[in-house]
Amino acid sequence: AGLPGIVLALLRPDLPVILVDATRRRIEFLDEAIAELGLDRVQTRWCRAEELNGHIHVEIVVARAVAPLEKLIPWAVPLLTRTGQLLALKGERAEQELKDAKPLLGRLSLTGELVAAGDGVLAEPTTVVRIRRKAVK
Known about the structure:
The protein contains four helices and six strands. The chain is α/β, with parallel strands linked by helices. The strands form two sheets. It has a four-stranded mixed beta sheet with strand order 3-4-6-5, with helices on one face. Strand 1 (17-21), helix 2 and strand 2 form a beta-alpha-beta unit. The mean pLDDT is 91.
């Protein structure tokens, strides 16, 4: 619980962060960690992401080990602002998941790309799938 949200909140204390988890035990842990670390701009929500549809609109949704892209995209994209993006931290299956999600991306007018986060800095960069809405011409 809390990865990468707590780390992002520590690195960028100027940004508001909402941590979402469907497990109460994890939320209780996160609430304790937030209090201990003095992270005033971090909130927790004990729910599933799709339950927040229509209640929040954010610039970035970051997800790690949540679900395959074909499930994650319908849960996360409705939470995004028009210019927002979904950053899904993925492992070795990232390229295949992105290929599998291409029909869904097309139906929803989204684009997807692979990004190597930490390339040149980390021994093993993290593969991130970035999902955005197609630019309106």
